[in-house]
Amino acid sequence: MSLRYRAISWNPQKRRYDAVMAASSGLYLALFVGVSAFTNPNATIETLLIRAFGTAALLLLHVILLIGPLCRLQPRFLPLLYNRRHLGVTTFVMGLAHGGFALFQFHALGDTNPLVSLLISNRRFDSLANFPFQPLGFIALVILFLMAATSHDFWLKQLSPVMWKRLHMLVYAAYALLIAHVALGVLQAETNPLLAGVLAAGMIVVLTVHLLAAQREHAMDKQPFETGFVAVCALGEIPEKRARVISLNGERIAVFKHDGKLSALSNVCQHQNGPLGEGRIVDGCVTCPWHGYQYLPETGVSPPPFKERVATYRVKLIDGVVYVNPEPVGQDGILSYTPSV
Amino acid sequence: MNPTEDEPFYIGYQPQPPVGLRRWLRIVIVALLALAISTALLLAFTFRRLPLSVFEFGVEREYVGVIRAQPYPLLLIKRDDRLEQFWLVGSGKHAADVNAFVGQSVKLRGTLITRDGLRMLEINSSTIKRLNHASAEALPTESLGRFTFVGEIVDSKCYLGVMNPGHTKPHRECAVRCISGGVPPLFLAHDSQGQAIALQLADAQGEPLSKEVLDFVAEPIEITGEVSRQGEWLTLRANPDTYTRK
Ligand code: HEM
Ligand code: FES
């Protein structure tokens, strides 16, 4: 059995995911260009393609940014997260089409190398309204490229999850750069307030959903420092084959109940930091809700041939109350205490 | 965040999503398609409707006339006692290389670029053939006096039709490249009646301008200078160091 390769290779649900993604992107591009050809008959086709790809990429980026916090707020969105990587790669490809067309259209066939021209043609760094907006799009494109290029699990391993996560947090920098790219670029010429309104609405939605999700996480992490066993909840509060997530001394711990046993593991999946406590026990294993990585509840170790391991914690059950010791034990291979219920 | 009700659990690598999620997933898919459709339509209807400009891309015609430089290269064609005037530019973001032909009658092939009655030809200098007949045609220059305008510097080639939109902020870098490559700079302003006018820019001596104006392109600029008329065209003469940003 090769669980990890099952998790990252092609499978029917990924194909469906990609089909929906391709259909909606294709529909977007075709509609934008097709309808603009009538509503804006004098615009050149290059302009329409540049706009279609640019706006499609930015719309997709909004969807990508929303998936994470939406899943924290409502687990039913998790199917969108499963193959988010392909959304990211598609965003990059559309951004590249937009940037590539723009680079050719506005900078090629001239007296200067197009990439140099991109960086030096506008020198009005001293003015907001005239600020060079194209280099902002270029930097964002470079970030999207780095993320797309390292999105495969191979790079997650090569770079180490911490570095990888840091690199992929740059998506927020790319987003900010692109907002500036549009606000200081096309919105300086397009006067219809609806366009600025659409951009602002997108920002407000992204910000609100992030704040709501962050608020929930924050409320959970506000516990005081504890030593020794800490009462966490009544046994009845944990549903069968599922977990309750608690925060002890800054660490999130998932306490699973399954087949008359209790076990406590780190809530942080070794793959991409997915919240294990929002997963289930499937086939006797703790199963991550993001991409389905699995861990044995007793040891925190992935079933062979995999070697991922998360920390485990000691658990006690006294008078129907579950206690957890925030001192991790699983890392050195000691079994967690698993009282029969 | 802690599960309370019995939610279906999605595992991507299983062949099918759990039964309890399928209806929801159909709703999500429809919502995503609706987002794509509505955003595409909304944006297609809200971008500014652009005015007509023409670039007969791929269509080359033969033109016979006299090449002059006033101060930028142009072709004068005599038709029924009237002189028609076309700026001449090269391919891409380059000037037309016609120095060897100034003052001569020629036959050449070019692609028409036109907007609001102003005309330009994109030519390949290697198609220019000298003709042996006399060529006296020249544009008379009529001085109109000293004026102040507020307007925008654009590159004539894109503005007249090669790109649309071919001016304002999003087009700034392209206009810089074109003017730097020798495409004549045009100044879009308004006359005292509020009519839109376009003037070709020259320095105070009437010589062509190129790199000197790059930092003033595609933003509101005030220029005071001597205006003259050459046939259908206006020229504004002023040194770029007297241009001011508005
Ligand atoms: C080399 C990189 C890039 C260059 C040279 C570039 C250039 C441009 C230019 C010239 C415009 C104005 C086009 C017009 O007249 O309508 C524009 C607009 C825009 N760009 Fe970019 N861009 C780049 C990267 C990106 C990326 C990576 C994205 C998104 C992922 C993006 C999103 C947009 C959007 C949404 C607009 C407004 C719609 C439009 O006018 O096309 N750009 N960009
Ligand atoms: S499986 Fe990817 S984060 Fe857990």
Please render the helix and strand layout as text.
The complex is a heterodimer of chains A (341) and B (246).
Chain A: H1 3-8, H2 12-39, H3 45-73, H4 78-82, H5 84-107, H6 114-120, H7 134-149, H8 153-159, H9 161-169, H10 171-183, H11 193-221, E1 230-234, E2 242-248, E3 251-258, E4 261-266, E5 280-282, E6 285-287, E7 294-295, E8 312-318, E9 321-328
Antiparallel strand pairs in A: 1-9, 2-3, 3-4, 4-8, 5-6, 6-7, 8-9
Helix pairs in contact in A: 2-3, 3-5, 3-10, 3-11, 5-6, 5-7, 7-10, 8-9
Chain B: H1 19-46, E1 54-55, E2 61-69, E3 73-79, E4 82-89, E5 105-115, E6 118-123, E7 129-130, E8 141-155, H2 156-162, H3 172-180, E9 185-190, E10 196-202, E11 221-230, E12 233-237, E13 244-245
Parallel strand pairs in B: 4-6, 10-12
Antiparallel strand pairs in B: 1-5, 2-3, 2-5, 3-4, 5-6, 5-7, 8-9, 8-11, 9-10, 11-12, 11-13
The complex binds protoporphyrin IX containing FE (HEM) and FE2/S2 (inorganic) cluster.
Structural notes for this entry:
- The complex is a heterodimer of chains A (341) and B (246).
- Chain A has helices spanning 3-8, 12-39, 45-73, 78-82, 84-107, 114-120, 134-149, 153-159, 161-169, 171-183, 193-221; strands spanning 230-234, 242-248, 251-258, 261-266, 280-282, 285-287, 294-295, 312-318, 321-328.
- With 341 residues, chain A is α+β, with helices and mostly antiparallel strands.
- Chain A has two domains: 12-219; 230-328, 3-layer Sandwich (Rieske Iron-sulfur Protein), CATH 2.102.10.
- In chain A, the strands form two sheets. Chain A has a six-stranded antiparallel sheet, with no helix packed on it.
- In chain A, helix 3 (45-73) runs parallel beside helix 11.
- The two termini of chain A are 31 Å apart.
- The relative contact order of chain A is 0.09.
- With 246 residues, chain B is an alpha+beta fold.
- Chain B folds into three domains: 1-42; 53-130, OB fold (Dihydrolipoamide Acetyltransferase, E2P), CATH 2.40.50; 141-245, Beta Barrel (OB fold (Dihydrolipoamide Acetyltransferase, E2P)), CATH 2.40.50.
- Chain B is built from three helices and 13 strands.
- In chain B, the strands form two sheets. In chain B, strands 2-3-4-6-5 form a five-stranded mixed barrel.
- In chain B, a hairpin with a 5-residue loop joins strand 9 and strand 10.
- The radius of gyration of chain B is 27 Å and the shape is elongated.
- Chain B starts with 18 loop residues before the first helix and ends with a strand.
- At the A-B interface, helix 2, helix 3, helix 4, helix 5 and helix 11 of A face helix 1 and helix 3 of B.
- Residues 50-51, 54-55, 57-58, 61, 95, 98-99, 102-103, 106, 118, 134, 137-138, 140-141, 144, 178, 181-182, 185-186 of chain A line the site of protoporphyrin IX containing FE.
- Residues 269, 271-272, 274, 288, 290-293 of chain A line the site of FE2/S2 (inorganic) cluster (FES).
